[in-house]
Amino acid sequence: MACPALGLEALQPLQPEPPPEPAFSEAQKWIEQVTGRSFGEKDFRTGLENGILLCELLNAIKPGLVKKINRLPTPIAGLDNIILFLRGCKELGLKESQLFDPSDLQDTSNRVTVK
Prior knowledge:
Layout: H1 22-35, H2 44-48, H3 52-61, H4 75-91, H5 102-106
Helix pairs in contact: 3-4
């Protein structure tokens, strides 16, 4: 009986995720302090990718800044929330160059931009 072919990735040992950069850990702690919510078991990026915590952060900083947070568990809802967050950041005076692109949080192929 022949063995099925295995890809090269099956031959390489699994590498553990590198520890988060200190800046991400600091940002995560700050977000948790300001919002009163925990990331729980989620890593920094996963905890932010639906945009809910980001919108809650803005509302903690300036109540009512984000009028309606979309809590549906869909990628489109997450993208809507991220766009609302970025608009709110601009309203608070941040410049476009200080912000990220909405797809950076949802595109797992580019983990360098936002972890």
